[in-house]
Amino acid sequence: MAANKFRQFIQPDILTVIAPERLRSLLSPYQEYLVKRGLVFPEAPTAAISCTRLSAILAQPDEQVPSQMVDALYFISAMTDTNAVDNLMAAAKSAHPGMEFNMDASDADIIVQIWLVDPDLVTTRHAESLVNTPKSFEYYRSREPKPNTFSMPDQATIKEMEVAMNHWFERNRRGRNCRIITADHGNKFSFLIRHGMPMLRRRSIRNDKTETILYRPEVCDVAFYDRSQNELGVRAMGTKGEKNLYRETIGYYLFDNYHYFQERQKITLNPLEIDGVNSLVCSDIDGLEQVTLTAINNRLDDGCDGYVFHKAKDVFLSLQKQKKSMPPASALTMAIFSMKLTGIEKPRTLTIQPPNRVTYQRDDESIVVDEFLDKRGFIDQLVR
């Protein structure tokens, strides 16, 4: 299996927080490839590279995309956490006693500096200590028949979508800086939606003096249309209002119907009850070596809204040793799985919660997660 199978979603927001000269140093070995894909490297060494264009290239990689470049951007993004960076700096100073750091540099700049000298150190520290933030997608199925053909929206349509979203963002204290980056991944068509959040006021120290700064944070949400399932998946950092905005806007501009995508049940836990341990078989899924059920949440019929949370290294084995059976699927509200992916040492966590929530650790795991859920029957066939 190609290593890049798990490197398909590169979050563009990380690019904007890397200093221009650092980003240029990071990308210089891959300049020939990037120029062929349409990226311009300005003549001035400190001039900024277009992060918008670079994001579009990374969102839709071709077969020639340098795996080292994709890995570098992934690990830099995954390690951008102050505690992780502090530990990484200590390890770098120990491994490279002459290395010095600018104490006013951003987390991302520090990681790039270390990566350019010792990429193995970054990947090792990531494997040892990083706890990934789970990625939670909500899915919306359409009541309409699956279209026979589907075309990517042109740039004029994308601009109209940005304008429509900006109206909502402005009314809800998020400014008018929405940008949409699209990519075609075969059966899936993705939208990376960059926008502002409500203004924040923070105390800051500059030149040994305390001052107040007011700024608008930027986030990147993800939505994708799955042509084979005729459904929309959404991961948004903000409120339900933003999820509805994406659902309605994409429905209207792609299918001329604000209500094309509905909140309908997608996920079922029936296979755990019906197929038992056989529901975890994954030998027919490329990139997935083993799946283990590690927790279930069971709603009790006791009139008191009671729940029982059962956690174990292997829930099926634990129930067997206790001579208990799996609770009925109708009472299960959540199931947590441990997934062993090919070529990745540390198991990943998958959580599914009916009716339509799936949570995993990285965007690029969606390929094998969706295939596993579909083949083992965790995707409800009644809503296809």
The count of DSSP E runs of length 2 or more, i.e. the number of strands, is 13
The helix/strand class is alpha+beta
Distance between the termini: 29 Å
Main beta-sheet strand count, sense and barrel state: 11 strands, antiparallel
Which consecutive residue ranges, at least 5 long each, have pLDDT under 50?
1-9, 129-134
Strand proportion? 15-25%
Give helix % range: 25-40%
What does the average pLDDT come to?
A: 83
Give the helices and strands as they follow along the chain.
HHHHHHHEHEEEEEEHEHEEHEEEH
Provide tags for this entry.
384 residues, alpha+beta, 3 domains, 11-stranded antiparallel sheet, two-stranded antiparallel ribbon, 12 helices, 33% helix, 23% strand, disordered N terminus
Task: Walk me through what this model shows.
This protein is an alpha+beta fold and 384 residues long. It folds into 3 domains: 3-129, no CATH class; 135-262, no CATH class; 270-383, no CATH class. It is built from 12 helices and 13 strands. The chain has helices at 20-27, 31-36, 51-59, 67-78, 82-95, 107-117, 119-129, 155-171, 240-255, 270-274, 315-321, 366-375; strands at 135-142, 179-184, 188-196, 200-206, 209-215, 218-226, 231-235, 261-262, 288-299, 307-311, 332-341, 348-353, 357-360. A hairpin with a 3-residue loop joins strand 2 and strand 3. Helix 1 (20-27) packs parallel to helix 6 (107-117), helix 5 (82-95) crosses helix 7 and helix 8 runs antiparallel to helix 9 (240-255). It is globular, with a radius of gyration of 23 Å. Residues 1-9 and 129-134 have low confidence and may be disordered.
